[in-house]
Fold this protein.
Amino acid sequence: MFVSDVTEEYERVKTCYHKLPGNPVTKVPMKCVKTPKPKAPSHKSKTHAQSHVPCVRALIPDIFHATNDRRPRYRLDCCGAGLFQCSLTGLVFEMEKKGEVSYRTVDWDSSLPTLMPAGPLFRIECPQRCVQQLYLPHCEEFCDAQKLSVAHEINGEMEDVHPSYVDATYVRVEVTNLSLYGLFRKCFSHLQVQSQVVLFQQQAGNCPQTCTLNVFLLPRNLPTFEVESYYPGCTLIQTTSNCILSPKGRYGLVCESVAKAEIQPKSGTFDCGYGPNYQPTFQVCLEAGVKAIKLILMDRGNNDKAVWETQVTLAAGQQHRQLCSETSSSSAPTERKDTASEFVMKHRDALIQQVSMVLHIADDLLVDEIITDEMYSRVSDERSRQEKMRQLLDTVCAGGETAISAFCKALRKYQPDLFANLERPTGAKASQMSHK
């Protein structure tokens, strides 16, 4: 089953950054757009993906960063033929055989004014050349296959590739050779699109008396992970994000349940853009001590009709303020413990290599009904211990915080020394090694 809401899936699979040497990502020149006469879509192309795709396997990609480039690079290891979905970007790859797919976002060429992006532009590589078809998530509320197309780079030029299939969530394109792929609209449309309201909380100073919420209005097929890479000092607030917005529409934000809350600006425009820069549409400044607020987004062009609202809990900010207070009253440094998701994502590579009691942990998760018999079989069917562990991590991370917490509990039960060593702060580990 396709994961259509990438924002919600993102929090489950938040991954720590790994630094790799490499060249900075440069803007790719695009000389022109060739638009061959599109083929008339068949009626079969209107059928939902589930009728064509019996099983899609969602995977957590490995994340890397090149030198001097803040944007992440993704890598997906596909174990064989079939369909594999990236849990962060929503991309789906139909593989002919086992292979490794690497991909990252690049900038659309702003020198082509007639090219109106309808999704991120991805540079995709596969050394084994075994990607047969590519599914690109779109965010059109009323999808018109005649107005939505795929841009593909060949020999430094961009061509218009007519999709082989379009449904309410995805656009499918046949892959001839991998390079740049991205969705674009053939003409501007004021029709509403599926969108998301994303909140990042930032603190002001080392021991803040206030906090600021950065509020982003984004198209739903823009991965939240891409935006967070531009704001490393902020915390993503997990909340309901889905809404329907109009491109270039004017919106206002209201903060309830708080006596003093400063919102800037009074009205903002939904640009429906895909980078390269991501600026918050609104900023909400709150005083210290605020634990929860209610936010309402209103459509200025429709008599201030409410189009999205949510209750926001600022637990992360309260933890941060408490941490600062403890640190100021003690000479010893204090560190906030990672959540279960952060622990698993931070130590994913170490867990894959060092956990030896994989099936014992899987047994506990099966008994506690965290995983199903089918999921357990997928784990046990893998040949090596490392592959079993990789499959188990993919499974529990897809199950959310409850499943990940249950995994950590079982890991602590069967391999307490390993768990304690990974949980220990980096500074403590270094000190322990120096004494040895």
In short: DSSP finds twelve helices and 24 strands in the chain.
